[in-house]
Amino acid sequence: MITYNPLLQDFDFAPFSEIKTEHFKPAILKAIELAKTEITEISDSTSSPTFKNTVEALEFSGKKLDRITSIFFNLNSAETNEEIQKIAQEISPILSEFQNDIILNEKLFERVKAVYNIKESLELNGEQMMLLDKKYKAFSRNGANLSLEDKTKLREIDKKLSSLSLKFGENVLAEANNFELLITDENDLDGLPDHVKETASEVASSKNKEGWIFTLEYPSYIPFMKYAKNRELRKTMALAFGAKGFQNDALDNQDNVLQIVKLRFDRAKLLGYQSHANFVLEERMAKNPETVNTFLQDLLEKAKPAAKKEFSELESYAKDLDGIDQLQKWDASYYAEKLKQKLFDLDDELLKPYFQLNNVINGVFTVAKKLYDLSFTEVKNIDVYHPDVKTYQVTNDEGKEIALFYADFHPRAGKRDGAWMTVYKSQEILNDKNIRPHISIVCNFTKPTKNTPSLLTFNEVTTLFHEFGHALHGMLANTTYPSLSGTSVYWDFVELPSQVLENWCYEPEALQLFAKHYETGEIIPQELIDKIKKASNFHEGMATLRQISFGMLDMGYHAVDPSSLTNIKKYEDEAFAPTKLYPDVKENCMSTSFSHIFQGGYSSGYYSYKWAEVLDADAFEYFKEKGIFNAEVAKKFQETVLSLGGTEEPMTLYKRFRGKEPQPDALLKRAGLLEKS
């Protein structure tokens, strides 16, 4: 019997060291009870409904539940285990049911609707009006107007979807953890850099094995595919990576994908929408699937000629170099890296010594200081969930607290692949107090070894800047309501702050702040900076085509009726046909590990990466015109985009910053596609 539960106490910082796995379920169940009481007080009130006693009260209800679940689900991504995954499967349907209890509460909806119907007479400010609109739509778009029978159907669908999404993610993680490539012949390491071999040796040693072990974790997988000369071993790795969730075993995700897309469609139809994409995109900048498909098709027409030309050049190069008659997917990174070295005399391994992780962290902090007057001070007295996690107190130039920042950089068995930003405590203004947020970024960068610190590839540098851009969006939030704060914006706007910050990685003025050789302290030579900039558009056509293919697959699943869909692999091949360059690999299927759309929040939204690139290319042109550290432009970006979250329509905010709508040509020009195509 648990008597003391740290999660049910009042806390500011997440009490990670006190939390035991068995605390989560009882804490969440108790917090649901508390939240239900708060909801009942609002819905059963005998007072006439007002903005304050209904809409605002609803916004600030369930705060304890929000804190506890944010900790739980963040750990389920960054530091999970079988117990946590089991609890996630148990509580997700319960949480889904609770959310439906709110949305389908007729008395509560009637009160919200009563306020909504007189909104023009209430003298609300812009943020209040946005909150009212958002709360009303949360009900009207999610079943409040359904019949009792259809509300029951909706509850069943939502329960199933929450469980299926979790199961999908668990299977992908388990598949990644289950695979290892053990190499015992040193000749098979030919081409691999010394530090990659050293890391693989340490992994083998940690598992009491002789030799070198490579895994599907990005810091192991990517350099192997890029540098390993042994083509058969590259094939082995590529097949394993592409077969996650596609092996007709207990971890197979094919049926999960089928069920998810069909249930999403059923849900949309139940709510009166033509498709899941129609439902989702109604609350996005794009507004409808037609706009997204036109956007992707236009980009495809611009990128495809360039991509085909790049692919043909790569084929010729591989044939001339090694007599490769048919370029395969496991050849892509290997020959692209060799060709890049030949064309630009630029090697990722040549760059890595200039990008020691600690220096890059200090660099991104310095960029934030120069742009937004933020200071980051590492603090050691904050509870963390793993020894790898670092914590920083963030203050402004007046010494005022801005945020707490967590950073978790290295892969481990309990952490899913990729990189992401998340929130442990939202920014809000409550009782006249501006409560500052707790923000986290999670990445999977190469670990230090006995002899070498953590050195980043240039791609990892841009990843760090990308996630830090999201973090700035959270840290600099300055709104009244948490559901409109920070990254709580339209999904196709949320990538603007992250992607725009990546641009600083290519600018000499920024690189000179942090790119210094970890052994000699030498600042990165201008010659290398010039090469980085020159190579920045290398294979941009193929990279763009790849992103378009994922966006088209996403829309292929969600913008149509999937009722007749039975064969995931066949369907995926058809969706990829317009963007196909490499021969198909029958053993592989991308959909079964496409976590962005089947576990994350990107369903009907993967296009937003390219959409936001249009915004970020256009926005950065403004910085370039005035100077990349221009205080006036930075302040304007902070005040119109970063601090205002979702309090206004994204295009309104963007035009206030830029003075005009974004110009797609800025992206095409930056990517070099105008010239190539």
UniProtKB/TrEMBL annotation:
Residues 224-672 form the Peptidase M3A/M3B catalytic domain. It comes from Gillisia mitskevichiae. Keywords: Hydrolase, Metal-binding, Metalloprotease, Protease, Zinc. One of its GO terms (biological process) is proteolysis. Binds 1 zinc ion. One of its GO terms (molecular function) is metal ion binding. Belongs to the peptidase M3 family. The keyword Zinc applies. This is Peptidyl-dipeptidase Dcp/oligopeptidase A. InterPro entries: M3A_DCP, MetalloPept_cat_dom_sf, Neurolysin/TOP_dom2, Pept_M3A_M3B, Pept_M3A_M3B_dom. Its cofactor is Zn(2+). One of its GO terms (cellular component) is cytosol. Gene3D superfamilies: 1.10.1370.40, Collagenase (Catalytic Domain) (3.40.390.10), Neurolysin, domain 3 (1.10.1370.10). The keyword Cell membrane does not apply.
